[in-house]
Specification:
homodimer, alpha/beta, Rossmann fold, 3 domains, transferase (chains A, B)
């Protein structure tokens, strides 16, 4: 059997099937062992090949595309440490439930563990962080092999998407010579089953009527309940949970990543300032719940987590269509493995519309009052992190995406980005909450969602500077706001900040970098913001700009800490006055 | 039991023992969960704490220190994807046999797999690429716990160093609050065994007299043998293998990483141009060996590999003190698991000094002739990759270290860096041959070895640009020569270069980056070399400079390919003329 013919037909069958499953994008990092797959992929008219030299960035870029589109994206790299560079993004994809199809080229068996160059042990390379791993066979040309390759491909795409979505890993051993025969006519014309090898219809978990009745009856016994929504992406969920809230008369505690802080859905019951008012003891007393219904990932707010922990006697129901265990406080009384939207629909129709609730009104009142008092942030004349996010909720255009870095930005969004009807999507890498790969993830998302704004701190920006290469190479449109407090701002909020010896060295870690240089290297426009007027005019001017644009806002870690604490203290005093008055 | 006291005494015992084992350096990436370990480490007077924000760079930096010093270096990071960023360097350390002690902080058991932030599955995070993994216990204060922690620490350091050296991974679950009590008096004063808990004396594999006799007698039967030395670091090996060569009258085929291409040892039998002359059929016929003795990793030269493959009937003996299987061609007839130096000593003394060999003289003659003809490279007037390495072998100062990138630089060193007596150490990451982490590894090495020159291509330089942060932060001294051929030059040497469609996109991958911007961001000096005179003057001027200095040489991939091929063809014709004449 001709080696090149076997190699070509095996790979062409795989790539053809990949496209049949609906995959449109693959991120490729250059390398030698992956040559045949890369060359065949580049030949397919319906596959977009994105080149990304740094595999760490490449994998986060694919993650961003998949996260933004909800569809799996493929990744391809050569053997060796190239594949190990995918690890951070694979881990993030696993925990944030994003579908990825990781394809790694490998040496054939006879070159493994015998000191051959670029040969490492790639079997189960990502451990438990890949949902499915397949060691692919050496390319052969036979009908059975084609059936196998196509079936694996279809399964990989379906497995990556099935709830909980996540990364799958296929490892391909390729022998030299590695060049396929691209002269072959009808490279991607499949001998049989032209519409795809096997269609995989994936059901979602739904509860039986008797389960719904039982849960519905239990719920009816409680007047004082809250709905807590963490990070969740599901079509139709916003309207379904708002309807549930209206039926039950429970407020919706909406985490920024719940996608409920912005949109065309009814915002009446959306609570968006809990991160502030749940720091106040009087509010916590007044708002004590009997039941908590939770959807999505664990919310970001520490104040909310503490509030739930302090109400251990409340029933806590966690609805998870991905059948995980999203309960770090270990307080759940029921785990309900059911598609989230279908749960809302079924319970709403079971309980019917309940009378107006004082408890709900009290949440709304405290929320409205807090929001009003938080407006004090507008008085901040110096450049500051809190006011920035408040401004952004005003200024971001309709339909924009706001991607935020971990550490401080996501927390400031939580505190200062309040409900609006502009359909702004808020994104962050909250599977493992790393500061790595943020630029690349946002750039990947920017190929799907426009306009896209990324707000990151300086350490996060630095960590993935290489990610900017993709913006340059593909003229991607992204507007980045770097909050440069010259180091790790979040550590000032932690107990070690009371131990000044070694604090700056170990935690403050000032980098003293002039990012302007890097922005110029990647052909971006750069603006060092000097005051709020400058920010506003620069922001407005930027609205129309294409390409990479970076605004840098320098802030001070100590001032920022003080400003946050002063504001929370002020608002807290006002809330106590309201509730005691 | 007081939590803080338990946390403090447990960690202090670990850190004290770490220092007792002889470890002097730890590379720390800032994070929250690792707070107690970082704070205690910073308190130890005999431990150098190096901060490195990007964990991928941090791990390669530690790898470079350990590689240069031969002693284990510790790494510390927080939980989550931070630890996953270590993966590429851990893999490289495993395959290149470099001792690392990887310490990762983790959430305690009750926060694992329950959706807690920054909690990922860190058990066996690096799979088979860690030599030893220990899930450490939750800190407790008891004599037994102290004994356990100290024993594990001693074992970790010994395991990392035992042949084959490699990375070990200890995972530490820490509960909040995370701040240790640094007020404690005599934090590191150990109650017992002040000189260290347990001394581990590691033997090396040596052969029994009967084994030596058997091997010695077998060797005596052959006149035509060669010694092939790949990457190897062992005190005293150079002199021992030169003595073996003199006794046996076998030439030494010296890979650049064998550390035999430069030094005070006798260079008479060192063959350093085989990568050129083994492309010639007449030379290969004239130099056919009956026996091949191999030390160290598989050599870099493809011509040499093919030569050995074409001589399958030759006995091939692989001496490996690390008991691996460094034989990708699967041609070994004997695997000899014995310390390399002791093997040389024992065989030399068994065989005694043999009479002068024609076979050895023929190798030396062809080598000398090839070297003379390769001098034609000096005539290259345009900036070129080959001539650069030839120049470097002349110009590098006594005792310098030359760290080279993978892909083309290491191959050009192989072709053009010839024997000299200047004790120049040549380094590269050849465990898994990745282009990742090269700047960081070289910077780590630069803290041990001075002066240090790094020569890399533009893709390799780009891949680890973040690594330059350490140079800025610690004012490290490194002289970098970037060969910028705007893309992946090595692919022009591979078969896919004959398929121009998509070649530039998939393999050429031009980045069009002006690195000057990045160098300025990291406070380096930058020189864009315009011709050879400029290079020479810049090089000489640089000799006295401290800090980060970068010289960029732009070359052309096609010209480079042609120049290499023309030179090899020319030399090959001359060799045929010599041998046939």
């Amino acid at each position: 059997m001709n080696h090149q013919e076997a190699l070509t037909s095996y790979i062409a069958a795989f790539v053809a099937e990949l496209v049949q499953t609906g995959i449109t994008d693959v991120v490729v990092s250059p390398g030698s062992r992956s040559t045949p797959m890369a060359m065949v992929m580049a030949e397919h008219p319906d596959l977009n090949v994105h080149i990304n030299v740094d595999e760490r960035s490449a994998a986060f870029f694919a993650l961003g595309m998949a996260k933004a589109s909800g569809h799996p994206v493929a990744l391809l790299c050569t053997s060796g440490t190239a594949a190990a560079n995918y690890y951070p993004a694979v881990v993030e994809a696993y925990y944030s439930r994003v579908p990825l199809i990781v394809l790694t080229a490998d040496r054939p068996h006879e070159l493994r563990d015998v000191g051959a160059p670029q040969a490492i042990d790639q079997i189960h390379l990502y451990g438990k962080h890949a949902k499915w791993f397949v060691e692919m066979p050496i390319p052969e040309k036979s009908d059975e092999m084609e059936r196998y390759v196509r079936s694996v491909c279809a399964r990989a795409a379906a497995t990556a998407q099935a709830a909980p979505a996540g990364p799958v890993h296929l490892n391909f051993p390729f022998r030299e010579p590695l060049v396929p025969n691209l002269e072959k006519e009808d490279l991607f014309t499949l001998k049989s089953r032209e519409a795809g090898y096997v269609a995989i219809e994936q059901g979602v978990p739904t509860l039986h009527t008797t389960q719904i009745e039982k849960i519905g009856e239990q719920l009816k016994r409680h007047q004082n309940g809250i709905i807590v929504c963490g990070s969740l992406e599901e079509d139709g969920f916003a309207d379904a949970v708002v309807a549930l809230s209206n039926h039950l008369q429970f407020p919706i505690i909406a985490d920024p990543l719940s996608q409920l802080r912005s949109g065309k859905h009814d915002g009446t019951n959306i609570i968006d300032t809990y991160d502030t008012f749940l720091r106040n003891e009087d509010a916590k007393k007044a708002l004590k719940p009997e039941v908590i219904i939770r959807f999505g990932a664990m919310p970001i707010s520490k104040a909310l987590t503490i509030f739930m922990k302090e109400n251990q006697d409340a029933e806590q129901w966690i609805i998870d269509g991905g059948a995980g265990w999203r309960d770090p406080s270990l307080l759940s009384t029921s785990m309900i493995y059911c598609n989230e939207k279908s749960f809302c629909d079924a319970i709403s129709s079971h309980v019917g519309v309940r009378p107006v609730s004082d408890y709900l009104n009290k949440w709304r009142e405290v929320n409205a009052f807090t929001k009003e008092n938080l407006m004090k942030i507008r008085e901040t004349s110096e450049l500051s992190e809190g006011r920035l996010f408040h401004l952004l909720s005003d200024m971001l255009p309709e339909g924009a995406t706001l991607f935020v870095g971990n550490s401080m930005p996501i927390r400031d969004v939580d505190s200062f980005f309040h409900f609006n009807e502009k359909s702004i999507k808020i994104m962050a890498n909250r599977g493992a909450n790393g500061i790595d790969g943020t630029i690349s993830t946002a750039l990947g998302a920017s190929t799907v969602l426009q306009p896209l704004y990324l707000v990151v701190g300086d350490l996060t920006f630095f960590h993935d500077l290489n990610g900017l290469m993709a913006a340059k190479l593909y003229n991607l449109n992204i507007k980045i706001i770097v909050i440069n407090n010259n180091g790790g701002g979040i550590f000032s909020f932690l107990p070690q900040s009371n131990h000044p010896k070694n604090f700056e060295k170990l935690f403050g870690t000032p980098l003293d970098l002039k990012f302007e240089h890097a922005i110029h290297m990647y052909n971006g426009t750069y603006d060092l913001i000097t005051d709020w007027n400058h920010f506003t005019s620069s922001f407005v001017q930027n609205l129309e700009n294409d390409g990479l644009s970076v605004m840098e806002i320098t802030t001070n870690r100590d001032t920022n800490l003080k400003e946050h604490r002063d504001l929370w203290n002020f608002v807290s005093q006002e809330i106590s006055r309201l509730l005691k008055g």
